[in-house]
Every structure is written in C-alpha cells, then in structure tokens.
UniProtKB/TrEMBL annotation, chain A:
It catalyses: 4 Fe(II)-[cytochrome c] + O2 + 8 H(+)(in) = 4 Fe(III)-[cytochrome c] + 2 H2O + 4 H(+)(out). Pfam families: COX2. This is Cytochrome aa3 subunit 2. It comes from Planomicrobium okeanokoites (Planococcus okeanokoites). PROSITE patterns: COX2, COX2_CUA. It comes from the Bacteria. Subunits I and II form the functional core of the enzyme complex. Electrons originating in cytochrome c are transferred via heme a and Cu(A) to the binuclear center formed by heme a3 and Cu(B).
TrEMBL record, chain B:
The chain crosses the membrane at residues 36-55, 67-96, 108-130, 150-173, 185-215, 235-257, 269-287, 302-324, 352-371, 391-411, 432-451, 471-496, 529-549. Residues 36-565 form the Cytochrome oxidase subunit I profile domain. This is Cbb3-type cytochrome c oxidase subunit I. It comes from the Bacteria. SUPFAM superfamilies: Cytochrome c oxidase subunit I-like. The keyword Repeat does not apply. Keywords: Electron transport, Membrane, Respiratory chain, Transmembrane, Transmembrane helix, Transport. It comes from Planomicrobium okeanokoites.
Length: 155, 565
C-alpha cells in the first residue's frame, strides 16, 4: 500500500491539528472545570413534585451573591416562574422533569442542559451583565413546546 | 448455489437484448427501480412538509387545526432521513453491485423484494399515523413521549426490511468471493458491503430499542421505560445512519467521479482504508448528541469526543484523494501549470457538477461537525437551530446533491435511456438552485442558532422577548431558502421523470473508475469483513458497555407514557 509523500504530509499535519485540538478540549474539561453538565443523581419522575429538593422551589441565597434554585421543567412551563437576581450573582440551577424530556437553555449565556426524566441535572452560571434573559425549552416536549419559556431579570 | 453469472457484463456491440446491453438484467433493474420510485415519492412528501414548516415558523402561514407544525416536522424527518435515504441507497448500491459483480444472486433478489415489501408497508404505516396526528414525536421519537403503538410497528418494519436487504447484499458479495478465490472484490462492491455492514450495526441498536423496549411499552404490556437508555440506543443508530449516507455518497466520489472526469481512481487501497476506518470507528460518534445529558460522567463524555473525532481521519483522506484524482486527470491531459487542471474538469457535465458542489458543501459541513462534537462548544449550539443548519449542509446538501448526481447516470442506466443535452443543462441549473437554496437556508439557520434560537419549535415570539425578536429576520431567510428548495425539488422530479420514461433510448453506462496502479493492490485480508466487524465491535464496546450497564443496573424507576397528539 503506497502512500504518496504529499498525502503523508497532509495526514500528519491534519492529525497534529486534531491532537492539539483534543488537548485544548481536555485541558478545558479537566483543569479549567469547563466540562459539560454531567450530574449523576437520579430521581423518580413520578415523585418529583413531592421530593425534598423540588417541593419548595424558590430562590435561596446560600452565600455572598450566590443563589440556588430547584426548577421543575414540565409540560409546558418552568416552575417557579420568572426570576429576578442582582447583577454579578452566581446561580446554581437544579432541574428535574416529572413528565417528558425537556431542554434548559438561557439565551445569551452558555447555560444549556438536557432535563431527562429519571435524572437530576445541575448547571451554574454567573450573571454579570444586567438585562432580561430568556429561559426556553430547547427539546421538543409536545404540542405546547413553543410556549415553554420564562425570564430571568438581572438588575 | 444459485446461478449468478447469467448476466455477465457485456461490452458494447455484443448486445443480446435491450436490458443486457446496459450490463444489467431486467430483474435487477426492477428491484432497483422499485426502490428508487419510493425515494421519488418520499422527496415529494418530505419536501412539501419542509416548505410548509419554513412558512409556518417564519409566520407567513397558519396551519389548519387538523394538522400541527410538529406533525409536519415528524413527516419531514421520517420521510427524508429514514425513507428517502434508505430506499435511494439500496436502489443505487444494488444496481452498482450488480454492475461490478456481474448480477445479483437469486437469493439476493428474493431478500431484496422481501425487504422492499416490509420497508414499503412500514413507510405507509408510519406516514399514516404521522399525517393523521397520531405520532407527533418527531423522527427521534424520544421516550417517554408516546405515539400510536402501530407507528412504532411501522418503524420496526422499515428496520427489518433494511436488515433483509443487508442479508441480500452479503449473499451476492460472498458468493462472488467464493467464485473468485485470490481476487480482491471491486472497489464499488467493497463500498456497498461496508454500507450494509454499518446498517447492520445501526439496525441492531434501533431494533433493540423499538422492538425490545418501545413496542411493549406502547401497547401497555410494560408500564415504564428508561428515557436515557432510549436516547443512547437511538443515537447509536442515528449517528451511524449519518455515516451510512456519507459512505454511500463517497462511494460515488471515489469510484464513479474519476471515470466521469476521464481519470482513474487515485488509490484503490487507500480508499479501502478510509472505508474500513469509517466502519470501525463510527457507532460511538452517536454519543456527541448526548454531551449535555445527565447521567454520563465528564470522563466518559471526553472518551466519546475522542472516538467521535476518529472519523475526521478518513474525511481528511477523502479530501486529499478527491483533489489528487482531479489533478491527475488534468495532468494526464497534458496540463502543466500548477492549477490549470482545475479548468479541464467537466464543469458542464451535471454528473460531475452535482458531485463537486456536494464536496464543497462538505468542507463547512465537516467543520460544523467538529464544532458540534466538541465538549464545550457543543454547549453553545446544542439543540439550537444551528444543528438543523448543520444537518441541512451534511445530508441536505452534501449527501442529497451526490444522490442527485448519481441519479443522472443511475436512472438512464436502469431505464435504458440517455441524458440529453437539455436535461443535462436543466440538471446543472437544478444543482445551482438546490445549492443556493441550501446556502441561504442553512446559513440563516447557523447564524440564528448562534443567536440562541432553538430547533424544532413552532412559530413563537416568546411573549415578545427581545432576544426572540432578533430571530425573526433569519426565519424569513429560512423560509425564502425553503421556497427556492421546492423549486429545486420540482426541477429534480421533472428530470427524474424525463430520465425514467421520456428521454430517448440510449446505452448510458454506470461509470466505474479503474485504479492507477493495479500492482499496488490492497492485501486480500481487506475483504475479510470478520476482522472489521470484530474491530468495530470492540470500539462499540469501549463506548457503550459502561453507560448501558450503568443505565440497566441503575435505580431508574422508569417513565410512564405521555401520549402525543
């Protein structure tokens, strides 16, 4: 099997670029804590509403401008409704679905996670810029999917 | 063993009858033509659904109450992604294999027709439940959303039909090897066999999911289902399907394109290496659809990123081989200057033009794929309409334009007609219209996705949100692209009808390129598929054993159904 000199060169350069790229992704994932949301905890979808975590869904201050909130993603709304937080706040979102699979996307941020029934999803974000952010479901969840949206107002 | 050699490839001038003159028996023609005619219908149904979606999402059109946007979306996905691509691939690969191996085996014909019947019945069932609003679950049918149980039975029939076609292909391939000991199978047959091997892998995952899990649950025999298991099995199938189309498409680039431009295959052996890597490394790529899923660890996801990136390598090989083929063809015609060979390519030949535009589309399509598969950047684009734009570049442009290009020699080859200059010119225009429509639509989708607009969502202003207001302009551009594409579709269907029934009689050939250096042939073990299947199984096991055992042994209590009309 003869490989042309130029093809060798092309494949070697291509592979080096690929390895550098993978290296960057690896450093981001394992050293800069930028790995994708991958929470492992499970929950019975049929008891989400009664569970300890989600029974009392409201914004709780847990530190200096640091908040925590449990959100139920269900057809076709996020519970509780619209949120309001001060600028610079870090918010830790905990999410679960009592029905079908939903998506949790906050526009103009990199917050994007799947909410699959049976699993708890977690994602955090620091809201530096004041403004109104749109939270929307980005996984088709039924005939009212396009109505599934809330806002976060950062003041 | 049944008699296979009854249709030897005849050279011009020794024609026995009309059918044999084109080197393919009429029974092989009938099987391929039947598959292609379903592809024809699927393009019409899926295309019209696509146009309506574009108009609804951009707010130009409101649907009557008896059909929802999501029913159209489901129809568009199932018709294009499952039905059109599989029927077309089978029609094309069977015809080409018949051409290079001297006819299909008797049993292949039997399996082919049985598979065709099952796939057709399955398609009609699935289409019925989708269009009557009983299966608004999209082509991914993520559980625990639930469609009418018989919708899933329709899907299962399509998959079983595909598996029967796989068996058919393997029979002809292996019987040729038995009759030709010590000989390497022709490159086209190697490609075709690889496609069907991948199909077996893909089908097994989806069969376990649909038959083993979804159908018993949809009929109410078991109360709950594990949605994560479903997503994982679905994407093992779904992403493999993507590369089934790619492999089918690049078989034409590697094998037929050289002949069309008056050149030769750049390297038969390297082409086979690329094919083998695609087959071995493919299935785990499905996991990059789940980068934002819970329940899979960060480490596991990184492993999947590495495995997904494996298939970049054969793409690099293909890029080199294509340009090298074209340059050598030009040099053989006496071109000396650095890039002069570019001008000697047959730009006005629609068969070539469609293929090269498809290749160009694959450059941004491939880059977008690398972006999607990367751990962190995926978070920016996941489930945004960027992904839809990506899919329309890969399948909608690269694969579809290649299929159109193939059809310009395949249909005349089967119908015993020839492509006239007028039809050829129309086909060149069709390519430009299609590529232009896709460029506009897919470009707008990519930008809109980066702005945050979600995929698979009906027209909405999100209560007048300012973020959503920025998306409207791009949605209008998407709709305009959709209108252009429907014009392209109408042109294509007209060309197909002409080539099948009305063009003048002729003896169009199925172009098969020769190798440059037969002395540099691949070693014979390349044809031993047991090796590649074993390696592919290992690569699948590395990716899937941990998560699947984890899900199966986990404490997931399961989800009851949520009916989706």
């Amino acid at each position: 099997m003869h490989i042309h000199r130029y093809e060798k060169l092309w494949l070697i350069i291509g592979s080096i670029i690929l390895f550098i790229f993978l290296g960057i992704v690896a450093v981001q994932t394992f050293f800069l804590d930028m790995g994708p949301p991958s929470h492992a905890e499970m929950i019975d979808p049929q008891s989400v509403r009664e569970s300890e975590i989600f029974a009392d869904p409201e914004l709780k201050e847990i530190g200096d401008n640091e908040y925590e909130i449990a959100i139920i993603a269900e057809m076709f709304t996020f519970q509780p409704g619209d949120l309001e937080i001060p600028a610079g706040a870090t918010v830790h979102f905990t999410l679960a679905s009592p029905d079908v699979t939903h998506g949790f996307k906050i526009t103009d941020t990199n917050v994007n996670v799947m909410v699959v029934p049976g699993h708890i999803s977690k994602v955090s974000h620091t809201f530096d810029e004041p403004g109104e952010y749109l939270i929307l479901c980005n996984e088709y969840c039924g005939l009212g999917h396009e109505f599934m949206a809330n806002t976060i107002t950062v003041k | 063993m049944a008699h296979i050699n009854e249709a030897p490839i005849l050279h011009k001038g020794v024609a026995v009858n009309d059918a044999a003159a084109s080197g393919i028996t009429s029974r092989d023609i009938r099987l391929s033509a039947a598959n292609l005619s379903i592809a024809f219908i699927a393009i019409m149904v899926g295309g019209i659904a696509g146009l309506l979606q574009g108009l609804v999402r951009s707010g130009f059109l409101e649907l009557p109450s008896w059909i929802s946007y999501y029913a159209l979306l489901t129809a568009h996905g199932v018709m294009f992604i499952l039905v059109l691509t599989s029927f077309f691939s089978i029609g094309y690969l069977y015809a080409g294999t018949s051409r290079v191996l001297g006819g299909l085996a008797d049993k292949t014909i039997a399996f082919g027709w049985a598979g065709f019947a099952l796939m057709s019945v399955g398609t009609v069932m699935a289409a019925f439940f989708i269009l009557t609003g009983n299966a608004n679950v999209l082509y991914t049918f993520y559980t625990p959303m639930q469609a009418h149980p018989w919708f899933y039975v329709g899907l299962a029939l399509i998959v079983v039909g595909i598996l029967l076609n796989c068996v058919g292909m393997f029979i002809t391939y292996q019987s040729w090897r038995k009759r030709n000991p010590g000989k390497l199978t022709p490159l086209f047959a190697f490609f075709a066999n690889a496609v069907f091997v991948l199909w077996v892998f893909a089908s097994l995952f989806i069969a376990v999911f649909v038959v083993g899990m979804v159908i018993p649950w949809a009929f109410g025999w078991v109360p709950t289902i594990d949605p994560m298991m479903g997503r994982t099995l679905f994407w093992a199938f779904g992403h493999t399907l993507v590369n089934i189309w790619m492999l089918t498409a690049i078989s034409a680039w590697y094998v037929s394109m050289p002949k069309i431009i008056g050149g030769k295959v750049f390297s038969d052996s390297l082409a086979r290496v690329a094919v083998v890597i695609l087959v071995v490394a493919n299935v785990p790529g499905g996991f990059h659809h789940q980068i934002l899923d819970p329940g899979l660890s960060v480490e596991l996801k990184f492993l999947h990123v590495i495995q997904t990136f494996m298939i970049i390598f054969p793409s690099l090989m293909t890029a080199f081989a294509m340009l090298a083929t074209m340059e050598r063809a030009g040099r053989a015609k006496g071109v000396r200057s650095l890039l002069g060979w570019w001008k000697t390519l047959p730009w006005s030949d629609a068969r070539f033009f469609a293929l090269i535009v498809a290749m160009f589309a694959f450059i941004p399509a491939g880059l977008g794929g690398i972006i999607n598969a990367s751990n962190q950047i995926n978070q920016v684009v996941h489930n945004s309409i960027w992904v839809t734009g990506h899919l329309h570049l890969t399948v909608g442009t690269t694969v579809m334009l290649t299929f159109f290009g193939i059809s310009y020699w395949l249909i005349p080859y089967l119908s015993g007609r020839r492509m006239t200059q007028t039809i050829n010119r129309l086909a060149v225009i069709q390519t430009i219209v299609w590529a232009g429509g896709m460029l506009l639509m897919s470009g707008a989708m990519h930008i809109n996705g980066l702005l945050g607009s979600p995929r698979r969502t009906a027209n909405t202003t999100y209560n007048g949100s300012s973020a959503a207001a920025d998306w409207a302009m791009y949605e209008t551009l998407m709709a305009m692209g959709g209108v252009i594409l429907v014009i392209g579709m109408a042109l294509l269907l007209y060309i197909w009808a002409q080539l099948a029934f009305f063009a003048p009689k002729g003896d169009a050939d199925f172009p098969i390129g020769e190798d440059y250096s037969p002395s540099d042939a691949s070693p014979l073990f390349m044809d031993r598929w047991s090796i590649w299947v074993a390696l592919a199984t290992v690569s699948i096991a590395i990716a899937y054993v941990i998560p699947l055992i984890d899900f199966a042994s986990g404490t997931n209590p399961g989800s009851p159904p949520f009916l989706m009309p």
